[in-house]
């Protein structure tokens, strides 16, 4: 606002040179209450016929008695509090929507299946249901593990070594869904001593790998773990 | 006191934002706890954790 005093000074100077009749107009242009010479706390209109409504009342009754820093602290505290509550509200709104989309407790309870491994003798298959699909568990004999390891991996359609497919060599756990069109293969059948899919004639070996027939991939391995007390947890 | 707090917390925008987020974090924990207590108090005796001991003997490990 630096130019304003300069301007008013220039106007005042020109007014001094001019005849006295224009002084009221100059006053209106410069609009400085100091020209009136009254006390600066109240504003008085330079125009004639001023009414009560144009007088600015005394606000001192409403002014804060506290310090400026205290007022600023209070003001920013209120702003910050509103911001914090809004942030917490926004966060929990988003969170509730996301939680709403995730699996509910009953679905999670069905998502895991426990199998007692002690009840499965060596050389036997067990089929359990997990998430609506059959899961094959085979307790393999040492001869079967040997057989699975002796296969030339490079010659397979979906090359996977037996170690990649099992966590413990004596336990083979896999989804019993043929990778061709989703039939359930028959255990202990087929040309390779493993599984045989009757729908279109896919042969799987003792590690569940595709060896012959139309299926493109090995039988899928679900996520599973062995618990400490001799149980298998699928899921 | 007031000006010291103001200078530390609100003077710079990033400190104000940090203070607001920290406040939101603390507020949310407190509010959630309070509302959970209110809920549990209103539904006392009706929730599974209240009647569990009648159906499950021992074994808090489930």
Automatic annotation (TrEMBL), chain A:
Positions in coiled-coil regions: none
Cofactor(s) the protein requires to work: [2Fe-2S] cluster
Top EC class for this record: translocase
PROSITE patterns (alphabetical): RIESKE (PS51296)
One Pfam family hit: Rieske
First-listed, main subcellular location of the protein, grouped into a coarse class: mitochondrion
EC number: 7.1.1.8
InterPro entries listed in its UniProt record: bc1_Rieske_TM_sf, Rieske_2Fe-2S, Rieske_2Fe-2S_sf, Rieske_Fe-S_prot, Rieske_Fe-S_prot_C, Rieske_TM, Ubiquinol_cyt_c_Rdtase_Fe-S-su
Region listing for Disordered, in residue ranges: 27-53
Gene Ontology CC terms: mitochondrial inner membrane
CC cofactor note: Binds 1 [2Fe-2S] cluster per subunit.
SUPFAM superfamilies noted in UniProt: ISP domain, ISP transmembrane anchor
GO molecular function: 2 iron, 2 sulfur cluster binding; metal ion binding; quinol-cytochrome-c reductase activity
Catalyzed reactions: a quinol + 2 Fe(III)-[cytochrome c](out) = a quinone + 2 Fe(II)-[cytochrome c](out) + 2 H(+)(out)
Subcellular location, record wording: Mitochondrion inner membrane
Domain (Rieske) ranges: 139-233
Assigned keywords, A-Z: 2Fe-2S, Disulfide bond, Electron transport, Iron, Iron-sulfur, Membrane, Metal-binding, Mitochondrion, Mitochondrion inner membrane, Respiratory chain, Transit peptide, Translocase, Transmembrane, Transmembrane helix, Transport
Membrane association type: Single-pass membrane protein
Entry's family note: Belongs to the Rieske iron-sulfur protein family.
Miscellaneous: The Rieske protein is a high potential 2Fe-2S protein.
UniProt protein name: Cytochrome b-c1 complex subunit Rieske, mitochondrial
Natural source organism: Staphylotrichum tortipilum
Organism classification: Eukaryota, Fungi, Dikarya, Ascomycota, Pezizomycotina
TrEMBL record, chain B:
Membrane-topology descriptor: Single-pass membrane protein
Membrane-crossing segments per the record: 14-34
Keywords (A to Z) from UniProt: Electron transport, Membrane, Mitochondrion, Mitochondrion inner membrane, Respiratory chain, Transmembrane, Transmembrane helix, Transport
Entry keyword annotation includes Transmembrane: yes
Any one GO CC term of the record: respiratory chain complex III
Location(s) in or outside the cell: Mitochondrion inner membrane
Organism superkingdom: Eukaryota
Pfam family, one: UCR_UQCRX_QCR9
Main subcellular location of this protein, as a coarse class: mitochondrion
GO biological processes: mitochondrial electron transport, ubiquinol to cytochrome c
InterPro entries in the cross-refs: QCR9, QCR9_sf
PANTHER family: CYTOCHROME B-C1 COMPLEX SUBUNIT 9, UBIQUINOL-CYTOCHROME C REDUCTASE COMPLEX, SUBUNIT X
Family statement: Belongs to the UQCR10/QCR9 family.
Function of the protein: Component of the ubiquinol-cytochrome c oxidoreductase, a multisubunit transmembrane complex that is part of the mitochondrial electron transport chain which drives oxidative phosphorylation. The complex plays an important role in the uptake of multiple carbon sources present in different host niches.
Subunit structure: Component of the ubiquinol-cytochrome c oxidoreductase (cytochrome b-c1 complex, complex III, CIII), a multisubunit enzyme composed of 3 respiratory subunits cytochrome b, cytochrome c1 and Rieske protein, 2 core protein subunits, and additional low-molecular weight protein subunits.
Protein name: Complex III subunit 9
């Amino acid at each position: 606002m630096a130019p304003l005093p300069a301007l008013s000074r220039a106007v005042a100077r020109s007014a001094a040179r001019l005849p006295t009749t224009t002084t009221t107009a100059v006053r209106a242009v410069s609009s400085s209450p100091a020209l009136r010479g009254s006390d600066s706390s109240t504003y008085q209109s330079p125009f004639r016929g001023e009414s009560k409504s144009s007088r600015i009342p005394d606000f001192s009754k409403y002014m804060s008695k506290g310090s400026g820093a205290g007022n600023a602290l209070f003001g920013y505290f209120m702003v910050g509090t509103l911001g914090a509550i809004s942030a917490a509200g926004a966060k929990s709104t988003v969170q509730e929507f996301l939680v709403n989309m995730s699996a509910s407790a009953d679905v999670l309870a069905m998502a895991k299946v426990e199998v007692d491994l002690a009840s499965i003798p060596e050389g036997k298959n067990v089929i359990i249901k997990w998430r609506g699909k059959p899961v094959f568990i085979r307790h393999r004999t040492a001869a079967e593990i040997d057989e699975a390891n002796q296969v030339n991996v490079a010659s397979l359609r979906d090359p996977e070594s037996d170690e990649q497919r099992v966590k413990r060599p004596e336990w083979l756990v896999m989804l019993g869904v043929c990778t061709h069109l989703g039939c359930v293969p028959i255990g202990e059948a087929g040309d390779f001593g493993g599984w045989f899919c009757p729908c279109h004639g896919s042969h799987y070996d003792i590690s569940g790998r595709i060896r012959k027939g139309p299926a493109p991939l090995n039988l899928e391995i679900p996520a599973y773990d062995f618990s400490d007390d001799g149980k298998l947890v699928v899921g | 006191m007031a000006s010291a707090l103001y200078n530390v917390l609100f003077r710079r925008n990033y400190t104000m934002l940090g203070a607001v987020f920290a406040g939101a974090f603390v507020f949310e924990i407190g509010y959630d706890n309070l509302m959970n207590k209110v809920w549990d108090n209103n539904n006392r005796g009706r929730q599974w954790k209240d009647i569990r001991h009648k159906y499950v003997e021992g074994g808090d490990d489930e």
